[in-house]
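Subgroup meeting minutes
Present: P.N., E.W., G.H.
Scribe: E.W.

1. P.N. recapped why we're keeping a running log of single-chain structure predictions: easier to compare across weeks, and new members can see raw inputs and outputs side by side.
2. G.H. added today's entry (119 aa).
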Amino acid sequence: MARDTICIYDLKISQTDFICTSDRVEVNITVDQSTAVNEAFENSALNIYPNPTSDVLSIDFPENYDLKALSIFNSLGQQVLYSKENLNQLYLGHLPAGHYIVDLTFAEQSIRTQLTLVN
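Output recorded in log:
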């Protein structure tokens, strides 16, 4: 997996032993992930730069990626930017310095990566 890539998984945990009175919880997690699409994205011309940035973030991707939308979340998980237009360059100078998550939504999957904004 590419450096700075964050994988997000939705997990559902349910209690199957309804007579359990223990304070201890055991959770077994199995991740079953197809790598075909991920490898195609990782080995391609998808490029998000500069990182860190102070104002303009550029995103390069092949036309066949079909980027649908872009979201940026702050460190509290709040969406601070959402765009379906002009996805190749974003002005971020209005956001405070800090760490952010960039979520790129393509037709086939979403990719999240970290971004650092500096003053």
